[in-house]
Specification:
256 residues; seven-stranded mixed sheet; globular; alpha/beta
Length: 256
């Protein structure tokens, strides 16, 4: 095992925080512009500690994170993520239809997600994508990792039935120590040429091992594609269009 690429980050790290519950997020240079927007909305309703995973941020944002929470550097380069040229042509067409032709650079951060989750400093953790707008308290969300599987996610609403149910990894509630995450990390590093993103790899692993996970109510990962829902606690502005909406919100707030 020790000769595998990034072997230390494929396994659970040490729990180094006194608190039993906390939030983790991650960002690289392509995503760090969202951090202040995310933080402003998070702290409006919540006070749980936050660990910021540096997946390749600028010096300015490293300092910004250190001032607001637990800063964790994840020294994993992008070299393990398959380039477009290393993916089967059929998969390329399928993935670009679902994500758009410009999604390829995003995979570099996506497949680092399981590696970050394995290094969480908390016993009970909520991973939240930065394009998730927090609109309320997350206190109750921690309860969902008491499921026997010790993990909970929201299921994607799909137009067509697929072989494996697809779970959205934008919000993941989990407890430390579950073997599933180590297997997910192995797939993310060794087999990412088979999956468009981290959630596809995780969903396939859950299906292959016949794991029944906890399912989050959709209000904790409400897709921007759904009708407006005033009860949504987490609104997920996923995709290129979602990022445009976030950018517009940031611009409007700067004018105030």
């Amino acid at each position: 095992m020790s000769d595998l690429l990034y072997s230390a980050y494929r396994r659970w790290g040490k729990c180094c925080h006194n608190g039993q519950a906390g939030i983790i997020v991650g960002a690289d240079l392509t995503q760090e512009w969202i951090l202040p927007w995310w933080w402003k909305r998070y702290q409006r309703f919540n006070s749980h500690p936050v660990a910021f995973f540096d997946l390749g941020m600028s010096l300015e944002m490293k300092a910004w994170c250190k001032e607001r929470g637990i800063y964790i550097h994840l020294p994993v380069a992008d070299i393990f993520v398959a380039d477009k040229e290393q993916v089967e042509e059929q998969k390329i067409d399928e993935w670009e239809q679902g994500h758009g032709k410009q999604f390829w650079p995003s995979r570099n951060a996506w497949f680092k997600k399981p590696l970050a989750c394995l290094q969480t400093p908390f016993q009970r953790t909520i991973w939240i994508d930065l394009d998730c707008e927090i609109r309320g308290s997350l206190d109750r969300l921690f309860e969902f990792c008491e499921h026997p599987s010790r993990i909970a996610m929201a299921r994607e609403i799909q137009e067509q039935a697929e072989r494996a149910p697809l779970y959205n990894s934008g919000v993941i509630v989990f407890q430390r120590g579950i073997p599933l995450f180590e297997e997910w990390a192995d797939d993310a590093i060794d087999r990412n040429h088979l999956f468009s993103g981290d959630q596809n790899a995780l969903s396939q692993r859950i299906f292959d091992e016949h794991i029944k996970i906890g399912e989050l109510p959709l209000i904790y990962n409400w897709s921007r594609c759904n009708p407006d829902n005033p009860d949504a606690v987490i609104l997920h502005w996923h995709g290129v269009h979602g990022k445009k909406i976030i950018s517009h919100q940031i611009w409007e707030e700067q004018l105030q």
